[in-house]
Amino acid sequence: MNDQDITAAEGFGKDAVRLDEGHVVGQGGIPDRFENPGLPPHVPRGADLSEAAAKRAEKQVAGLFTLSILGTVLFVLAYFLVDIRTMAYLPGIGDMSLQHVLLGVGMGLALLGIGLGAVHWAKTLMPDEEVVEMRHPMRSSDADRDEVVRIMKEEGGKAQLSRRPLLKYTLGGAMSLFALPVLLPVLGGLGPMPQKSMSLTFWNGGPSGPGEEPAFTPMRLMRDPENTAIKASDVTIGSVFHVLPEGLLDLEHGVLEEKAKAAVLLMRLDPSDIKSQKELDWGHQGIVAYSKICTHVGCPVGLYEQGTHHLLCPCHQSTFDVTDDCKVIFGPAKRPLPQLKITVDDEGYLVSAQPFREAVGPSFWERG
Ligand code: FES
C-alpha cells in the first residue's frame, strides 16, 4: 500500500497526500490536519522544589479559606444584628439597606474565598501530572474502577490533606459554614415581615422610618420631579400628574425609599363619570388621587387611558377603573389602588386630607 492509499484508507479522501508522520496535506498544499504535537516539557513548580515555597502557598490558600469564613461570619452578623431599615449611602448607587449591602458583601467573600482558595491550592500544591486517557467504552472495566478508587486514595494522600492539617481545618470550616448563607434566607426569610412599613408613608406626616409615628399634618401635593405645588385650577379634565408629598424631595437621605411608597397619581374626571360616592367625597370636584404602587407586586402604575379612565400597570397588565374606586378590572392584581383623600387649602392648592387608610403596594400576610 503506498502513501496515497494509506491516507484514503484513513478517511482523508483520495486527493490527500501523506507527506510524513507529522501532517497530512491536500493536493493544493493546504494542511488538512496536524498531528497532536504532544505536551510541552514538564516544568516543576516552586512548591515542588522548595518546602518553603510550599509552606508559603499553604498559608496563602489557608488565608483565602479564612477570608471565606470571615465572609460567612459577616453575613450571619448582618442578618441578625443589622436593622433592615438602616440605610447606607453608596456613591453612584444611592441609598440602600445597609443589611442588604452587608449580606451581599458577606456572601460574595464567602464564595470568592472558597473558589480562589481551591484554584490556588490546585495550581500550587496538588500533583500536576499530565494524564492522557484513551477513548474506551463508557463503563470502565471492574479492574479500571478498582484502579480509580486506588488512585483516588493515593492521590488524596498526595494532596497533602493529612500532612497539612491547617488546610484541612480551614477548608472544613469554610465549607461547613458556607451552607449558612444558603440556609438562613430559606429558613428565616430575608428580613422581617412588612408589618406597618407599607401602612406608614410620608403622607402620614413625614419620614416613615423607624421611630415614633409622625402626627398627621395636611401636605401639599407636589409635581414629581419639579417639586412645585399644584393648584386645583391647574388640573384640567383628562390631565394626569405624578405627585409626591411636600417635603419628600427635600430629604437628605431615604428619598428613594419614601418615594417608592408615597408616589401618587392625580387625575381629573368629569364628576358625572365617577360611579363611587366615596371616591367623589375623597376627591375635589372630580380631582382624585390614587397610590401609584401596583397592588400586584409593586410596579409603578404609569399608563392612564384618558378615553376609558383606565390605569394600566405595565408589568403584568393589571388594569384599574378610575371611575369606580380604582377597582381591578383585568390582570393579576387582587386589590384596588388605595385612594388618598384630598382637599384644597386657603390658597387653592391641593393638600392631603388624611394619610392612606390602608397599606399601599402588594398584598402580604400582615396587611390587615
Ligand atoms: S406589578 Fe402590576 S400587574 Fe404585576
UniProtKB/TrEMBL annotation:
One of its GO terms (molecular function) is metal ion binding. Its main location: membrane. InterPro entries: QcrA_N, Rieske_2Fe-2S, Rieske_2Fe-2S_sf, Rieske_Fe-S_prot. It is a multi-pass membrane protein. It comes from the Bacteria. It is found in: Cell membrane. The chain crosses the membrane at residues 61-81, 101-122, 166-190. Keywords: 2Fe-2S, Cell membrane, Disulfide bond, Electron transport, Iron, Iron-sulfur, Membrane, Metal-binding, Oxidoreductase, Respiratory chain, Transmembrane, Transmembrane helix, Transport. The keyword Membrane applies. Gene3D superfamilies: Rieske [2Fe-2S] iron-sulphur domain. Residues 280-351 form the Rieske domain. CDD domains: Rieske. Belongs to the Rieske iron-sulfur protein family. Iron-sulfur subunit of the cytochrome bc1 complex, an essential component of the respiratory electron transport chain required for ATP synthesis. The bc1 complex catalyzes the oxidation of menaquinol and the reduction of cytochrome c in the respiratory chain. The bc1 complex operates through a Q-cycle mechanism that couples electron transfer to generation of the proton gradient that drives ATP synthesis. This is Cytochrome bc1 complex Rieske iron-sulfur subunit. It comes from Phycicoccus elongatus Lp2. The lineage of its organism: Bacteria, Bacillati, Actinomycetota, Actinomycetes, Micrococcales.
